[in-house]
Amino acid sequence: MEERLSHEEFVxxxxxxxxxxxxxGIHTVYSGxxxxxxxxxxxxxxxxxxxxxAEAGRIVIRPVKGGVMLYLPEDAPGASSADQALKKMGLG
Length: 92
Known about the structure:
The chain is of the alpha+beta class. It is built from 4 helices and 3 strands, in the order αβααββα. The protein has one domain: Arc Repressor Mutant, subunit A, CATH 1.10.10. A hairpin with a 2-residue loop joins β2 and β3.
C-alpha cells in the first residue's frame, strides 16, 4: 500500500490543485474537496481536520454560502468586516 499524505499535505495540495484560475481558495463543497477527502481518508471527517489545521495556523477558513472556503495562510483575504468591527469594539 502506498504512503498516504498527511492531512496537512492533502489539504494544501487540494487548495493549490483545485482552485480555479483567478481564485486563491477553494470551496469545500463545490470543488469536490469534501468528497475527495472522505474517499482518501475513509471514516474521517474533513470538517474536524480542517478546523484543527486552521486552529494551528496551517490554513485559513472563511465561511461562505453553502460551506467554507479554504486558503493557504499567505493567500487568505483580510479579516472579515465582522472581525474588524469586533476588534474596534474591543471584543475581538
